[in-house]
Write a structure and sequence with these properties.
Layout: E1 2-6, H1 11-22, E2 26-31, H2 41-44, E3 48-51, E4 69-72, H3 84-99, E5 106-112, H4 121-133, E6 139-145, E7 148-149, H5 154-165, E8 168-172, E9 178-179, E10 182-183, H6 184-193, E11 203-207, E12 213-214, H7 215-226, E13 231-235, H8 240-250, H9 255-265, H10 275-280, H11 287-299, E14 332-339, H12 343-351, H13 363-375, E15 396-397, E16 400-406, E17 411-416, E18 422-431, E19 434-443, H14 445-471
Parallel strand pairs: 1-2, 1-4, 2-3, 4-5, 5-6, 6-11, 7-10, 8-13
Antiparallel strand pairs: 9-12, 14-19, 15-16, 16-17, 17-18, 18-19
Helix pairs in contact: 1-6, 3-4, 5-7, 7-11, 8-9
InterPro entries: DUF2867, NAD(P)-bd_dom, NAD(P)-bd_dom_sf, NAD(P)-dependent_oxidoreduct
GO cellular component, one term: cytoplasm
Domain NAD(P)-binding: 7-147
């Protein structure tokens, strides 16, 4: 079958793509920016790519007319606290218009479980999108999931941060809310097995794992799998706003996502029936099995995708192309260069920068800068990086965003998503046996210039020693 995969660069899309290819399907990936599609050359040669922004004029968007089915994996929850529901509704309406010009017979939509009359804004938006898609010119299959547990998922990373950093927790009362987590590999199995299955056309199904747990149970379950104990005490006085700040400062989540998650965590999210599981004969994994499987992926460096690589997880809300040309005028720069002996070894060092590797000098100072960034609403250093030595354009890398990662031209270009009174770039480039390291800052007014000169003493020895350590190969 020829399949349109929307949200192809998202957490679910990146997990689903290799499965569809293994099944022998012809996949067309729909992304806003083709350069951000984080796949290797082998996978790229097997797929077609179309650039589409489903929030733009649908008359200007085109997809192949001969597609047989489509996956609708477009969500905007991490991009806004206030109007993400409007964006999700508009995207769904535009999708219906675009897909009408194709021969698409089935659309599969991954939604959220809805079983409360008073829904959170997040779940209400998912339900509204579902209703919009039912008006399309195709047969719709809706899979409604709750908490998805897998390496790189926002839920897993938040639980991981909380448990690993806080053996004793004072938590809001929403940790007593019941939910039904499901392993990411089970979600992918459901998504692939309903494809072309006419028994699932024009129906909505709840999917979940075998365990119904409170969030408190999930935190204890994580600790059990990891081999330690944690103590959790609930208090009734923590407001949604305070809860959001609590998640934001303790975990790697963005404040926008924390706000939307807390809003949803007040609602019980439990599957109402197991019809689809019985129809397809799928045996789901327990919550503790899902945690164990996630860590096996992490330990083997097999994490395919992470929610943190979403553009919406950071400060840039525009096309990366707008930042890839480093300005030459009206900027302040710190330029350093050093002759190197082994270009390949040095390039490998560059490609490992950030995350667990750190920044090759003064890591404690980088951590302080990350903490200060968190205090003023930035991402801080907690996003880390998805893979220890692979980088793709658009990836999050601590409080930077990867703009360009080209091993052939031996160049890595990063754009700062930390809160600063200006715009900052950090570039590494190897040419003719010389490593060039350039920090560029475009200040916004006098405050920006004062900021640059205030950190200049740190730049002198941090950047100077950093390039020396990278050059050691």
């Amino acid at each position: 079958m020829k399949i349109l995969l929307t949200g192809a660069n998202g957490y679910i899309g990146m997990r689903l793509l290799p499965q569809l290819l293994d099944m022998g399907h012809n996949v067309v990936c729909a992304v806003r920016d083709e350069k951000r599609l984080s796949v290797d050359a082998k996978t790229r040669s097997k797929i077609d790519v179309v650039e589409i922004d489903f929030l733009d004029d649908p008359e200007k968007q085109q997809v192949p007319a001969d597609i047989d089915a489509a996956y609708y994996l477009i969500h905007s929850m991490t991009s806004s606290v206030t109007d993400f529901d409007e964006k999700e509704a508009q995207a769904a309406k535009n999708f219906n218009i675009i897909i009408k010009n194709t021969q698409c017979k089935q659309v599969i939509y991954l939604s959220g479980i809805v079983n409360d009359k008073e829904l959170s804004k997040h779940l209400s938006s998912r339900k509204n999108v579902e209703e919009i898609l039912y008006k399309g010119s195709f047969d719709l299959t809706v899979l409604r999931a709750g908490i998805i547990v897998g390496s790189g998922s926002s839920s897993f990373e938040i639980i991981r941060d909380l448990c690993e950093k806080l053996p004793v927790m004072i938590t809001p009362k929403w940790v007593l809310t019941k939910t039904q987590p499901i392993a990411i590999r089970d979600v992918i199995q459901f998504l692939t097995q309903v494809l072309g299955n006419k028994d699932t056309y024009d129906q909505s199904f709840d999917i979940g794992g075998p365990d119904i747990l409170t969030y408190k149970d999930m935190l204890h379950g994580y600790a059990k799998v990891r081999g330690f104990k944690n103590w959790i005490f609930t208090v009734p006085v923590m407001t949604p706003k305070l809860s959001s700040y609590w998640l934001y400062f303790v975990t790697s989540t963005s404040y926008k996502l924390a706000m939307n998650l807390v809003d949803s965590m007040k609602m019980e999210v439990v599957a109402q029936d197991n019809r689809l599981q019985e129809m397809l004969g799928i045996e789901t994994h327990t919550y503790e099995e899902a945690i164990d499987l996630a860590f096996k992926k992490i330990e083997q460096n097999l994490v395919i995708s992470s929610w943190k690589d979403s553009i919406a997880s950071g400060q840039i809300q525009e096309d990366l192309e707008n930042y890839i040309q480093v300005p030459k005028y009206g900027v302040l720069q710190d330029k350093k260069s050093i002759r190197i002996e082994d270009e390949d070894a040095v390039l490998a060092n560059i490609w490992r920068i950030g995350g667990e590797t750190g920044w090759y000098y003064g890591n404690w100072l980088w951590k302080i800068r990350g903490f200060l960034d968190k205090l003023v609403g930035g991402p801080g250093l907690r996003r880390g990086r998805t893979h220890p030595y692979k980088i793709f354009p658009g990836d999050a890398l601590d409080f930077w965003r990867v703009l360009l990662a080209d091993k052939k031209s031996k160049r890595l270009l990063l754009f700062a998503e930390m809160k600063t009174p200006g715009e900052a770039w950090l570039e590494f480039k190897i040419e003719d046996g010389v490593l060039y390291q350039t920090a560029t800052f475009r200040p916004k007014g006098l405050l920006g210039r004062l900021y640059w000169y205030s950190v200049l003493p740190f730049h002198l020895f941090i950047f100077g020693n950093m390039i020396k350590n990278i050059a050691k190969g």
